[in-house]
Structure formats: C-alpha cells, structure tokens
Amino acid sequence: MKIITKMRLPPMSLALGLVLAGAGTSLAHHGFTGAYDASRPLYLEGVVERATLALPHVELIVDVAQPAPPPQALPRLETLGIPDIAARLRPIEAGRHRIQIAGTNFVAELQGRIKVGDRVALIALRNCRPPHEVRSRWIRLADGDVVARGGATQAEVQGC
Prior knowledge:
The protein has 3 helices and 9 strands, in the order αβββαββαββββ. The chain is α/β, with parallel strands linked by helices. It has a single domain, classed as CATH 2.40.50.140. A hairpin with a 5-residue loop joins strand 7 (134-140) and strand 8 (146-148). It is globular and about 35 Å long.
C-alpha cells in the first residue's frame, strides 16, 4: 500500500518562496551579476529601431549596417573611467544589437530625446557571461549631444 502525504504550506511561506524565486531572475538580469569586459570597449553607430525608456534602464535595438571606426575625437570619454579607452575602442559587428544603457538616471535624461529612426553612436561593453548582453554608459544622440555617466553601474573586468 502506498502512502501519499499532502503538505500544506502556510500562505506566508508560499509568498516568500515566490519572491525568492523571482529574485534570482532579477539578479541575473542586472549588470552586477555580469562581468563586462572593459579591456575591449565597443563603438557602434546605427539607427534606433526600438527605444524603451522605463526603469530600471533604457533599452535600445540599434541596427548597425556596417562597422564604423570610432572618430578620433569623442567627447566625455574620461567620464567612463576606463584607462586608454580611445586606443582600445573597436567597432562592433554589423547587425541588430540590443543595448542596455546602464543607470536609472538615463531613463529621465533621455526621455523625449531619443526616438525610432534616430542615428546614434554608443560606447559599450559586452558581458563575458552568456547571453553576452551589451551595456553602455555613453551615447551620442541624433542632435550631437553626448550623455555619459561614470561610476559603477555594472561589474567590469579586464578581459574575459
């Protein structure tokens, strides 16, 4: 004879379990669980296909028709705090790229300043860990204005 036991969880235990299960997904989504390679910063120029400006960060889909070498003079690079960044910059490969712009302050600062069809340039870092998302703290808008943020908005490493 089989004995089947049913276990009943108190409602508070169930609620706590659901919160903790979602915490892992949330942590995996944010930059502090990644390892963004600051030794190989990426430069990309392209057209915005989609722009989502909502907390916790801005997310863009940018179509890069062909890799573009970075211009000689890029304003506000020092803000990023990456040594010799101008010499290390390399163009990102052609294609559609999902870019997260790290930092909640970008949501308000870019509101009404970026739209589908705009040509933008970004400096970004790729996550060494799957799914290898690309994050940025520097963007040149269609009007030429550069918005950049320093500080730790993601975990940065020197090489994957």
